Amino acid sequence: xxxxxxxxxxxxxxxxxxxxxxxxxxxxxxxxxxxxxxxxxxxxxxxxxxxxxxxxxxxxxxxxxxxxxxxxxxxxxxxxxxxxxxxxxxxxxxxxxxxxxxxxxxxxxxxxxxxxxxxxxxxxxxxxxxxxxxxxxxxxxxxxxxxxxxxxxxxxxxxxxxxxxxxxxxxxxxxxxxxxxxxxxxxxxxxxxxxxxxxxxxxxxxxxxxxxxxxxxxxxxxxxxxxxxxxxxxxxxxxxxxxxxxxxxxxxxxxxxxxxxxxxxxxxxxxxxxxxxxxxxxxxxxxxxxxxxxxxxxxxxxxxxxxxxxxxxxxxxxxxxxxxxxxxxxxxxxxxxxxxxxxxxxxxxxxxxxxxxxxxxxxxxxxxxxxx
Amino acid sequence: xxxxxxxxxxxxxxxxxxxxxxxxxxxxxxxxxxxxxxxxxxxxxxxxxxxxxxxxxxxxxxxxxxxxxxxxxxxxxxxxxxxxxxxxxxxxxxxxxxxxxxxxxxxxxxxxxxxxxxxxxxxxxxxxxxxxxxxxxxxxxxxxxxxxxxxxxxxxxxxxxxxxxxxxxxxxxxxxxxxxxxxxxxxxxxxxxxxxxxxxxxxxxxxxxxxxxxxxxxxxxxxxxxxxxxxxxxxxxxxxxxxxxxxxxxxxxxxxxxxxxxxxxxxxxxxxxxxxxxxxxxxxxxxxxxxxxxxxxxxxxxxxxxxxxxxxxxxxxxxxxxxxxxxxxxxxxxxxxxxxxxxxxxxxxxxxxxxxxxxxxxxxxxxxxxxx
Lengths: 372, 372
Description:
The structure is a homodimer.
Chain A: E1 5-7, E2 10-12, H1 17-24, E3 27-28, H2 31-41, H3 46-49, E4 53-57, H4 59-67, E5 72-78, H5 86-102, E6 105-110, H6 112-118, H7 124-140, E7 148-152, H8 157-168, H9 173-180, H10 188-192, H11 194-198, H12 203-208, E8 213-219, H13 223-235, E9 242-246, H14 274-284, H15 293-299, H16 307-315, H17 319-331, H18 336-368
Parallel strand pairs in A: 5-6, 5-8, 6-7, 8-9
Antiparallel strand pairs in A: 1-2, 3-4, 4-9
């Protein structure tokens, strides 16, 4: 068995999410919580129904507070070192749903310092270019610019660094070593960095002299940062944040690891053209079907290993339609190529809209970037 | 023999400066260099004549450049965690002389982040108060406000942090461990901090799109920061800084360690009143004299161990007068109490002027604090 490693700087092996729940000490999002959410939002987002967002820390407390009339704010982020792909998009589209349904502020952090410090071969200037490009994609998602605030670590260091040192004073290198697997050969910026990622948990409250809860939707590899943060922010007199954990969208090529921009054949980028999308999916998407059409008709396909089927969980939000596809693929009525064609059409629809909005995003950036 | 330790976070034992020169790999300021300086400045500052500023790195290069018409800038600083004492004052009064004689810009860093991160029992707010108080003392020294720029690490993080991460990417924790004796129990902010202290070496050039030399006058315990910095800034395409090293002004109580604000009986603070000065010197200043007046008249005093004699090197700038005092003390003509009285008068003069200027400094701070 491949050993599983899941932290912000390494995701390896086949991921057993039930085991991660135990290892990380987090909780599954259960039916009771879904019912409470539905009472507020009027609907359950398909990512919740389908256990894509599957686990949490302290969601009950946040809902208690919200039900008693207290607002919270959302905090999520992006490490700008390459193009945005559908894995990012799906998490952020869920964040947008949360913002719309709960009517709350969103603080969106661009961790340009982190990416510069961790990536040996990227220059400062390259990371700045990616920050700009990634901001365009985030703006294109359609967040409410009145309620969405971009924080760029280097650009907002004037308000972030003074808070980060308060955090840093409470974290030893021993803790960092244990959480991220670092050694004495790590550079001192990368060692300090987690303090910067902690700041947005309480910065909005410091700036606005409030004491609201913070809700962090994230892909589960980011959890180790906040395991440290949660203890530290409490020591600093702030509320522990609530966290919602998402599973990784699998790479096109199969079920281990996570989607990543560093190998663009394994994922779909937000800037890919319809023909690229078609080629990538047809060529690389791992098939759960049989060797021959004849055999497939007889035995049917495996929806669990078929990447097109799995990805449709993210993009076909109609439960009945998805169930029909799964049923027909399992029975052999639908061929792998046909499921791929359905996925291609869905993604084309999403990306053509996104790419249109992205063209206008340039003019919007100024509204999104926080002014301190 | 007490083991000597000299780094920014520990100064212990009796200090053998000749050995430090070897250990640190620095050079003595020799007659040839003094002659070159005099050619430019018209005089040799007593701290140079008296080997208070006694060693350097790359001073030749800086003078070569200056003689060929290139300017340099000065960089020095203050760790704001307590009141300013005569040890600080003496180093900075020499910096002022350099600024005046060479007619150059001075960048003065207040390392409030450092002091907050290193001092367990100081709050962020206490350090901010000391920063304000210390800025008043620095402003009161009479630096030219047109050519002097205060950098406060937290306040100027917007321009400093982006440069600090470029530095930090090139320094591993192994290097920090070796230079400062740190362990895994150090907090991650203190580990990162040396990157912030490196930034002013090249920030003025980045801001002004120039490539001038940087001259750093400092007390020798700060050298380890810049031993690391010098290699790093060169890798980043900047000039290695020139460094001038000062010996420590000994504590009132005797010759080991350095003057420190953390024990105010061992030093004179810039805010001490004439009566406090008199009491401290008479009560605490270690005497090089004999047990009885009779014995003193016969055997004479020891100018090397007598703190009043040693301190007069800093404050009696007239060589003839100082020589006379030393001669008469050695011969037994002058008693310890009489030398103390001379020192008290000198210091009273300096501090009463300083305290007057300090009253006006409040209105000047805004002119000194750098506007980015």
